[in-house]
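Recall that a protein's primary structure is simply its ordered list of amino acids. Everything else, from secondary elements to tertiary packing, is in principle encoded there. The following example makes that idea concrete.
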Amino acid sequence: MVDLTSFDLTSFRFTSLIVANLLRNRRRTALTVASIAVSLCLLTVLGAMYRALFLQPDATPAQALRLITHHRISITQPMPVSFLARIRSVPGVHDSMIWQFFGGTYKDNRDPRNIFARFAVEPDRFFNIKVEIAMPDDEKQAFVHIRNSCIVGKAVADRLALRPGDHIAITGDIFPVNLDLIIAGIYSAPEDNENLYFNYEYLRQLLMTSGQSSRADQVGVFFTQVDHPDDAEPVAAAIDKQFEDSPAPTKTESERAWQLSFVSFLGNLKLFVLSISAALTFTILLVSGNTVSMSVRERVREVGIFKTLGFTPETILAIFLGESMVMAIAGGFAGLLLGAVLSFVVNMTMPSLGALNLGLTPGVAAFVLLVAAVIGVISSYIPARSASRLSILQSLGHVG
C-alpha cells in the first residue's frame, strides 16, 4: 500500500520531468487550466461577495453610536414626523433626524452609472450624526443654508463628472414631485460614497404645494445617535416602548443590523452562495479528474519503465500529483486574476453592487488557492495511486 506519509522531498528533483509531461499534450493542458481558471474566477467573485456580505468587520465607533428606527411591519410603511420629538426626549439620545429615501430617476435608469440612492435629511443635524462624512466647511454651510442644495458622494461625482454648483434634476417616482437641486459639495466617507443627500424641508414644501400634505407629515426612517455605545440597547428598547401601542409601532436596531437586514430580502443568500461555490468546486474536480485519468492511462507503460530505473511507488505517485497540482494552481492564479478584473468591472459598472466593495483580499486569494491545491490532490490521487501500485510486468504489458 502506498503511504503518503512516507513522502520526502525527492519529488521536487523531478520538476523538469513534471513540466515536460504537462507540455506533452499542450492543448489538453491549456484547456484544463483554462476551465479551472474560469471556474475559480467565479469562485473568487462569490468569495468576495460572501466576505462583503457576511464577513465585514464589526461596526465602526461612529456606527456603534447610531440607531435606526423604522416601522415594525416594514420599512416601506411610514411613521408620523411627530415621533421625532419623542425620540429626542428619550434619555441617552444625543440627537435624532429624519432619513427619508426618495428614489426617483436621474436621466436614464437604463444606464447603470445613473443608479445611486437619494435621501432627504436634516442638514443642520446630518453632520453631527454622520460624523465620518468629510467635506470642506464652506460646502457644509452651503448645504445647511441653501434649501434646494444637495451633497453627492465622491464615487458618484467622479462617475458622472459632477462638481459643486452643478444642477441635478431627479424625477420622482415614489413621491409625485421632481427635484431641482444644486450641488453644494462633494463628500467622502469610509463606506458611504454612493449616495445623494438633500434637504428634507425642500421635499416637504414640494409635497405641500402639490397637494400631498398628508405625505409631508410622514417619514420612513429616523436616524438616532446615542451618547455612549452602552446606551444603544436600552435606548432602542425605550424608543420602541413609547410607540408599541401607537398605530405605527416601531423597530429600532443598530445601523449594522439594519444594513444586513436588506440582505435577508434576497432570501437565504448565504446558503445560495455556498451552494453555488460547492457546485463549482465539484465541477472543477470532475474536469481535473477526467484529465488526469486520461493522462495516467496513456502513461501506464512509463510507470513500468520508471520502476525499472529504481523509482519507488511513492515517487511515481508524487510526480503524478505534482503534475495535477501544477495545473490546478496555475488555473488558480489565472482565476484570481480574472476574478479581480471581474470584481473591478462590477464595482465600476454596477454601483448598486459596487457599494459592497467587491475586491480580491488576501483571505479570498488564500481560500481560492487552497481550493485549487485540494482539487489538484483529490482529482489525481486515485488514478495515480492505482498506476503507481502496478508491478513492472503489469505496467509494461499494459495496452493503452
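Residues 4-57+267-396 form one domain. Residues 313-349 form the longest helix (37 residues).
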